Amino acid sequence: GLPYLPALMVCVLGNMLPVPFIYFFARKFLTWGADKKFIGKICTFFLVKGERAGQKLVKATGRGGLFLALMLFVGIPLPGTGAWTGTLGASFLNMGFKSTVASVSLGVVLAGIIMAVVSTGVFSIIGL
After folding, report:
1. What span, in angstroms and rounded, lies between the C-alpha atoms of 54 and 67?
2. How far is 53 from 45, CA to CA, in rounded Å?
3. DSSP characters for 48-109?
4. Cα 14 to Cα 4: distance, rounded to the nearest angstrom
5. Is the pLDDT of residue 111 over 90?
6. How far is C-alpha 30 from the chain's CA centre?
7. If we measure between CA atoms, which residue out of 104, 71, 75 comes closest to residue 87?
8. Residue 1: its H or E element
């Protein structure tokens, strides 16, 4: 029963708040924690997995296709795909901050639109 546009704007802003912190600090934290006793294994796991996934994505899309690939990754509302995961991935790919924020923002808006369409029952109207 909430108005769609204000609700979407609040959701997008709330989702985007941690993006700068994740972009600038998450990778540094993982690198710092890689040789620590209690968190070393998990930090190393995420570093290795992030680097491998980034290399695969660059091979598949090329450097020019990263913006669109990141936007679609964030925009398709599935578990594990979202602004925070996408931002961490962008930091592993050394994407610029401005292009990361723009791509992730568009992806979050896309996910919001998809979820609005699904939640309003549009597919039941057309028989899907």
Report:
1. 13
2. 12
3. HHHHHHHHHHHHHHTGGGHHHHHHHHHHS--TT-SHHHHHHHHHHTT--HHHHHHHHHHHHH
4. 15
5. yes
6. 17
7. 104
8. none
